[in-house]
Structure formats: C-alpha cells, structure tokens
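About this split. The held-out portion is used to measure sequence recovery: a designer receives only the structure tokens and must propose an amino acid at every position. Recovery is the fraction of positions where the proposal matches the reference. Here is one held-out target exactly as it appears in the evaluation file.
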C-alpha cells in the first residue's frame, strides 16, 4: 500500500475462516488513503490495488483513523487437507 504520506508502521492482519481468508493492511498515516494508479512496466510499485482488485473476491477501504485496505478470498478448507 503506497500512500501520499507514508506511515512508519503498517499492520497486517490475516484471519482464516472456514470458507474465507480475510486480509487487512492498516496504517496510521494521514486519512488520505491509498491511491489506485497504473503501475508502469519496470516500476517497483504501483500494482498493489490492481492485484487486490483482480485476485480478491471482494475488497474495500476503511478510514478512521488512518487507512485500512481489506480484502477477502474464498478459501473452502477441507479438514483432510489442513496442516496439523
């Protein structure tokens, strides 16, 4: 997540449910939020929200305070395939 005013701390939260994976990236920077932009070939950034949009089943942005980008992925788990 690239913001106009970088924050020194990002928080990554991953929650695994029986039928989904919920991922959130938060920062306490200014309440301006992430900017969706088109990454240029050879660039080292600018692709984050494009990837989220293509891969996630749904996603959204929350503000208050700071910014939090949240996305969910469907992930049906079969008990036979869970790690022990």
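Reference sequence for scoring:
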């Amino acid at each position: 997540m690239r913001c106009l005013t970088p924050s020194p701390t990002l928080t990554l939260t991953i929650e695994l449910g029986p039928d989904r994976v919920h991922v959130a990236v938060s920062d306490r920077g200014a309440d301006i939020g992430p900017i969706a932009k088109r990454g240029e070939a050879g660039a080292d950034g600018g692709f984050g929200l494009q990837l989220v949009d293509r891969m996630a089943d749904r996603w959204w942005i929350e503000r208050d305070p700071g910014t939090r980008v949240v996305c969910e992925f469907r992930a049906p788990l079969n008990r036979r395939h869970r790690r022990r």
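Annotator remark: The chain has one domain: 10-78.
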